[in-house]
Amino acid sequence: MATLKPGAALGASYRLVELLGSGAAGDVWRAERISGGEPVAAKILKPEHASDPALVERFIRERSVLIGLRHPNIVAVRDLVVEGEMIAIVMDLIPGGSLRELLDEQRTLKPADALTLVGQVFRALSEAHSRAVTHRDIKPDNVLLAAPWSGAAEDTVRVADFGIAAVVSERNRQTTGVLGTPQYMAPELISHGRTTPAADVYSAGVMLYELLSGRTPFAGPGTDFTIAYRHVTSHPPRLDLPAPIADWVARLLSKDPGERPVAADAAAEAVRLAKRFDSTAPLERAEAPTEFEEIDRPATMLRSDLLQTHADDGPDLYAQALSVDAPELGDAGQQTTVRPMPRLQAPVRGPEQDPDDAGRSRPSWLTRKNVLLGALGLVSLGVLVGGMMWVFGGDTSDAVPASEEPLEASQQDQQLPTGLSVARVATYDPVESRVALEVTYSAQKAPLSGSFLEVVPSPANGGACPPVVWEGVDAAKHQAVTGLDAKCGWRLDGVEVPADGRLTVRGSLPLEVADESELREWLELVSTETLASLLDPEASSTSYPVQRLVDVNVVVPSRAVGQSTLPVTLLPVWPDGPDEVHPLYQSPATGEPSRMLKETAGGEAGVRFSDSCSGAVAVSSDGLTVTTLAPTSECRIRAVVGNFTNLESAPLSITTREQLAHCA
Known about the structure:
This protein has a 6-stranded antiparallel β-sheet with strand order 1-2-3-4-6-5. The chain contains 18 helices and 31 strands. β26 and β27 (626-628) form a beta hairpin. The longest helix has 26 residues, at 368-393. It is α+β, with helices and mostly antiparallel strands. It has 4 domains: 1-93, Phosphorylase Kinase, domain 1 (2-Layer Sandwich), CATH 3.30.200; 95-288, Orthogonal Bundle (Transferase(Phosphotransferase), domain 1), CATH 1.10.510; 407-541, Immunoglobulin-like; 549-663, Sandwich (Immunoglobulin-like). The relative contact order is 0.06.
């Protein structure tokens, strides 16, 4: 690839202006659109990425995902340029610098500022995770500020490199095994190579720790591998902050991905803690520790044939064997248990037959292989007979007894497109043989309300639906007339979840559980059955809009006349597709907002229109009415509807009445 310099063309639409910086993936340039001079940022990937045909193909395949990821806290990808040996991602230009530069300047931040910034990162993660996109490299370098720092405020943060890190890391996994930056990598990435939304939450937790203390939790002496492995083996030093903050940071950094909150809940908690501890002073920058507290791990069992040989010869020779000169290895890093292995006596075999214990001969056909085959046949016959007895005579085996101890399990769904997150906790009471079920609904940007569905099945496949007694909500059994098939479903009416808030409803049902694993499996079944009913692509229904709405289409006419009110329709998109019969909202509006709009966006307060028409239209001060002004060949109307942000219409043209009459 030729050396790039200011003024060089980038594809057919852009021109490079100046180099802004370099990173692991590539160089970032300030660029501008050739037509109009609009400033943009262009990340030009390193040559080794551009020369990889598989990676180029994946970038092209992921183009629609990258460009379609729109959120106020995400750097928008505008275009993908693939030209010769060059791949460039064209993005919004964010002028405020990165959190890395802010940390270098401030050293540490007030807890309220750090929580506000990272809360916005969690919002960005929540949006991406709802679209099945993970970042894989959350760190201060990839989090930008919309303006030069003057304190944390709403929508200050823009997360960069969404999708880019995910695509490039596929190549890194094959060549170097590296999936991210060691200081910010989740334990499961290091130990198992698993990339999940929970790993992004962990990385954001590391970044929050760094903003609060001035260093990452496992920074210290050693190589990158040493630092990375501490994420698996060590506890992070506790922050000297109020307990609610320190405890929450520790939860974000949990070794178990299942114990971390989902991004939407983390965003809401960050907002709550920032308000509560607004006056808490920042910490002094902490020095990196030289030692870390290790987590409890299972002991290692060593079975040595050499030690067993001497053990069989007597205790004196066994002790002598242990005292043989050996290199000094220092203190063990973890407890080691030595367990001798029983030594097997090898039989003496003749060419045709083996002597048995009584000295008698056995036929040559009675070999180990034939004995094993015969035993296998007997086992198979036993399984077959046992299965027939179970089918025709009933299961006579003893059932696993119910636990005599209290049990608890928790489960969390991924955030839905409307901004709804659902967390469930089940607690088993062995005395009453009942399970208490807590369902917590959390909202993000917009208040959510209406009827919600919960499917509470029997643990036994095909068993009778358990009777549930609900508290704190009006509940009735789900009716099939809604168009949804939800066996064991319950309609919870009157649910109201405030923006950035949560609501918990409780139920109780008779249920016997053997152990915690069985309780957790049942709780996962509640989640999967509920989502399967709600998101069934074959079902046509407007019920439960908060849980079923997957997108919103902005519909405008393809051509409009200047100096007139532009009709704009917001169509709900369900799992089975757009619904043109039941619009979510129509502008200009008449009468009361639709029930669906009230439930999913809080009514008209959750709707705002804007445009990309360079003055060709005007939007009213309340953001609800669009008026055409001047002719233009292409104009798009943008909309925000509750948690659905950066919605955009198909292009329309605006003409004058004279032009329209001439065309007619």
